[in-house]
Amino acid sequence: KCAHLRLACQTDPKPCYTSKLWWCGILLLGLGEVGNFTAYGFAPAALVAPLGCVSVIGSAFISGLFLKETMRAADILGGTLAVVGTYLLVTFTPNVPQEITAKKVQNYLVSWPFVIYVIIEIITFCILLYFYKRKAVKHIVVLLMLVALLASLMVIAVKAVAGMITHSVKGKMQLAYPVFYIMCILMAATCAFQVK
């Protein structure tokens, strides 16, 4: 954002991709996501996923400090709730190391709890999408719920892919199983639809 603001202040604005600051920001974002993906291979998803809110809190602090954006009471309340929620999840999540193999992923995908979860998620997503597209309900809560539903599937896919890659690097090849590629497609699709 800083690069965009600097470019907008110029009398002859150039495209953002000509700025070194913009490329530095993109590189740092990419490295952060690679680190986040790697963390899913070594730690439980219940620990890694909530820690993503730390980056949101950091961004809010940095934007106030460097970009002179004002912090509203709702921002402070939301940040506080995110930090408290992260603390509670990290503190009370059982620390049970579990290796993710392709066979375990296949078994989880056909288990009744997961099938019921996916059915409920698809129905909820379709209802929300109907209200958003057909009834023009553009409320932020509807958008956030749509993205959150996709994000929950993305976390499952990322955990499966990262776990299978980690297991493969340790010497037990998991990349020959079709479920690895199914999870890669699910990961890419949910990520693309969240962006859209």
TrEMBL record:
Keyword Membrane appears in the UniProt entry: yes
Query: PANTHER family from the xrefs?
Result: NIPA-LIKE PROTEIN 2 (PTHR12570:SF16), PTHR12570
One Pfam match, given by its short name, reads Mg_trans_NIPA
The source organism is Eudromia elegans
Family label:
Belongs to the NIPA family.
- Transmembrane stretches, start-end: 21-42, 48-67, 74-92, 112-132, 139-163, 175-195
Which SUPFAM superfamilies is this protein grouped with? Multidrug resistance efflux transporter EmrE
The terms under GO molecular function for this entry are: magnesium ion transmembrane transporter activity
* Record keywords, A-Z: Membrane, Transmembrane, Transmembrane helix
Q: What is this protein called?
A: NPAL2 protein
Name its cellular compartments: Membrane
InterPro entries according to UniProt = EmrE-like (IPR037185), Mg_trans_NIPA (IPR008521)
- Membrane topology of this protein: Multi-pass membrane protein
Q: Name one GO cellular component term.
A: membrane
